[in-house]
Amino acid sequence: MPIKTKRWCVPAEPDDGLRILVCRYRPRALPKAKETWDVWMRDLGPSPELFDAFYGKGRAPITLDEYRERYTHEMQAQQDKIAELAARVDRGETVTLLCSKDCILEQACHRSMLAALIQAARRASPGRAPLP
Hints:
- The protein is α/β, with parallel strands linked by helices.
- It contains 4 helices and 4 strands, in the order βββαααβα.
- The protein has a domain at 3-42 and 79-124.
- 35% of the residues lie in helices and 12% in strands.
- The longest helix is centred in the last third of the chain and has 15 residues, at 110-124.
- It is globular and about 45 Å long.
């Protein structure tokens, strides 16, 4: 599978390819020598405002549907990075998106939403044959 998603604390596997931390914040108290990712793309994580809204900081939490909608909207500003990752996958590279060790619900994690956005960018690439 060319796009994988995991928590950053899950040990790397030989077929993980490029491991990208896609959290807005770097894990606290983790020495650089123990980082499990190759690159940190913090702008691919939800904004602090969206993160706070989803977890109900200061008010009632937003729904998962609203979170998805707002995250997708935020990622419109990151289309260049998403297109770059889609191109890597198109070249046969594996990309592993890493998120928080506390993020255990895959369906509610932005890493899964980001993987879907990368797949959509692959389908939308000019000159690429449509997927079946």
